Structures are given as structure tokens and as C-alpha cells.
DNA sequence: AGGAAAATGAAATTCATTTTCAATTAGTTC
DNA sequence: GAACTAATTGAAAATGAATTTCATTTTCCT
């Protein structure tokens, strides 16, 4: 198994123990699959993936485990224009933004320090104390953009 | 009545006529209230406002009229972190972004050409053809930010 | 006024998300 | 390792915003 993945699973186990929660076979399987996959998945999608090999694991548990991963800091929830809640593994504090293709639905991450600074500057102009932000660019990716233009 | 508002109501009437739709008392009242108010309202909120003075107008009609206003270009739909669909009057093509207070829920609009340019530049780096974007800064407004810090 | 097409509003439906609850399981403690 | 307590599981039900249905009413044309 992936070094990264087992490390994070360990982190989860620590988090559970600390809070008096329990490590279970299901949580292990779900976290493993989620971390390995590493995409922006909905609970539904992850459930479908997992139930291929583990028909006994229910949707509810997948859903709850994703929530748990979010609380433990191993994942974040995101909602894009399609209004579905997606989960994404969180390495550390790499805050990044997204490019979303309107045709194929692909989600590309990016990070830009200038953007961050500019955001902070704008917020300050308004006396705002920024905690977090959301920035999504919707359009057509390299593969999907029209041949013309 | 506000010059601006009646002008826009006229725009709506023209839009309806062009498409073979009908101007109705309800649509007039709903559009009027919405345009006058000018906030980021949910269908529910607008419905409550209107039903104070017009108990006979149903939620469904308010909802449908807001959709109609969006289609006619007089409003846009927006979804913030609370996952409710809000409607906002649209003057022309002023694309702006939002500062949202996590405590009081106030929504402040802003516009920044540098931001727009930066977005375009980033998108291009990834071969992306940007159509639209979404940018929200969440934090605490001047009134709500902690005294310390 | 008459008639066709659209609009209305209450109620029903949808659909993702969240909660409930009885049965099961994990992780102590003796 | 057995017993116990609290957490977990999974199926089913509940929730809640958004949307659709449908019988009735209204608009707008002639």
C-alpha cells in the first residue's frame, strides 16, 4: 500500500482514539479507497466504487466517514456549480482553487500566491477579516475548448 | 415609483411579449418588489416579503418569476456557502464578486479589474477558456470582526 | 364576448443530504 | 477471555430546498 495513504490512515486512527471514537473495518476501507483515489468525489461516487468490492458497506457509512475525515482534517468538502458536495483529500494547508470544465466536468487545481495577496488586499479595503475563500473558474479545458477561437 | 424599477419592469414586459408569454399582475408585483429591494434574496425571503401585502400570491409564483427574471437577463442566481439559491438584480454586465460575513451573513459586492486579469492569466496557463467565475471571500465584516486582532 | 394558450397556486414530487433506530461491533475492564 | 458500555453500522425514514403537476383561472388575441 501507498506510503502516503497508510500514513494518513494512521492519522485518522489517532484522531479517533483521541476523541474516544472507534476504528472500524469499514472506516479503514472507506478512508483507504478515498485517499488512494484522491479525486473530487461525491459520497455517492465513492460509495459506488467501494460497493463493487464491499457490498456489505452501506452508503450511510461512506457518507459519515467522509464527514469524519473532514472533521479530522484529512479531507475538505466542496460544492461546485452542480450543487453536489464533493470531498477532496487534504494534505496539509495547501489552499488551492479550481478550474472546472463546463463540458467534461474535469476539475483542475491551481494555486497562486498573487491571487491570495490580492484577495487579502481587497478584503482589507472593506474592513473585512478574511477566514477563507472560494474561487472557481468555469470554462472549457484544453481538450474541450472549441477548435475555433 | 423608482425610475430604474419601472424601466426594468418595462424590459420584463418586452421580454414576455417577445416570447409570447403573458404579463400578469403577480409578475408585476413580484418583479417590482424584487427590483426595489435589490438584495441577495432567496425565493423564500422574497415570498415572505410579498405575502405581507399580497397574501394571495403563492410561493411557486414567486419562485417561477425569479427564474423568469434570470432568463430574461434581469437577475442572476447565486449560491453561497449556505447552499441557498439567491437572486440578485442584474444591471448590465457588471460582473462582481462577494465578501460574505460569517457572523451576520451580510453580503458585500466588489469589483476588481486586477483580479479579473489575474484570473484570465491563470486560466490561460492551463489552456483554459474561461466563461465565468465565482469568487467569494468569507470572513468577518467591519462590524463583526473581533475587537482583538 | 369567445377561445386558445399561458399562468397560478396548492399540493405533490424529486433528490441529495441528514437523521433515526434497532442490531452489531469495538475497546475497555474485571 | 467474558462481560459491559458506548460507539458504529446500515436500512429506512426524515428533511428541506428546488421543481413539477394539475385543475382552475387569467391573459390576450380576434
Short note summarizing the structure:
Chain A has 149 residues and is α+β, with helices and mostly antiparallel strands. Chain A has helices at 3-19, 25-37, 43-53, 59-71, 113-125, and strands at 41-42, 75-79, 85-89, 97-101, 107-110, 129-140.
Short key terms for the protein model shown above:
homodimer, 149 residues, alpha+beta, Arc Repressor Mutant, subunit A, Dna Ligase, domain 1, 2 domains, three-stranded mixed sheet, 5 helices, 6 strands, 45% helix, DNA-binding
CATH class of the largest domain in chain A: Mainly Alpha
Largest interface: A-B, 36 and 36 residues
- In CATH terms, the superfamily of the largest domain in chain A is Winged helix-like DNA-binding domain superfamily/Winged helix DNA-binding domain
Instruction: Please state roughly what percent of the residues of chain A sit in beta strands, choosing from under 5%, 5-15%, 15-25%, 25-35%, 35-45% or over 45%.
Output: 15-25%
Architecture (CATH level 2) name of the largest domain in chain A: Orthogonal Bundle
Give the count of structural domains of chain A: 2
Q: What is the string of SSEs of chain A from the N terminus onward? A: HHEHHEEEEHE
Q: Write down the overall mean pLDDT of chain A.
A: 91
> How far apart lie the N and C ends of chain A?
45 Å
Task: Count all strands of chain A and give the number.
Answer: 6
Q: How would a textbook summarize the main sheet of chain A?
A: 3 strands, antiparallel
Helix percent of chain A reads 40-55%
Task: Enumerate the strands of the largest sheet of chain A in spatial order, edge to edge or round the barrel.
Answer: 1-3-2
SS-based class of chain A: alpha+beta
What is the alpha-carbon Rg of chain A in Å?
18 Å
What's the overall geometry of chain A? globular
* CATH topology assignment of the largest domain in chain A: Arc Repressor Mutant, subunit A
The low-confidence runs of chain A, each spanning 5 or more residues with pLDDT under 50, are none
Number of helices of chain A: 5
Amino acid at each position: 500500500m501507498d506510503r502516503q495513504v497508510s500514513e494518513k490512515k494512521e492519522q485518522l486512527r489517532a484522531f479517533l482514539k483521541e476523541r474516544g471514537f472507534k476504528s472500524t473495518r469499514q472506516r479503514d476501507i472507506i478512508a483507504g479507497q478515498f485517499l488512494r483515489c484522491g479525486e473530487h468525489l461525491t459520497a455517492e461516487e465513492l460509495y459506488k466504487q467501494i460497493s463493487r468490492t464491499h457490498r456489505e458497506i452501506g452508503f450511510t457509512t461512506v457518507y459519515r466517514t467522509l464527514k469524519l475525515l473532514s472533521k479530522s482534517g484529512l479531507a475538505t468538502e466542496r460544492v461546485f456549480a452542480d450543487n453536489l458536495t464533493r470531498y477532496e483529500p487534504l494534505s496539509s494547508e495547501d489552499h488551492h482553487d479550481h478550474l472546472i470544465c463546463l463540458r467534461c466536468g474535469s476539475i483542475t487545481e491551481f494555486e497562486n500566491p498573487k491571487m491570495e495577496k490580492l484577495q487579502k488586499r481587497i478584503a482589507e479595503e472593506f474592513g473585512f477579516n478574511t477566514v477563507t475563500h472560494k474561487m472557481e473558474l468555469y470554462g472549457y479545458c484544453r481538450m474541450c475548448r472549441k477548435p475555433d477561437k
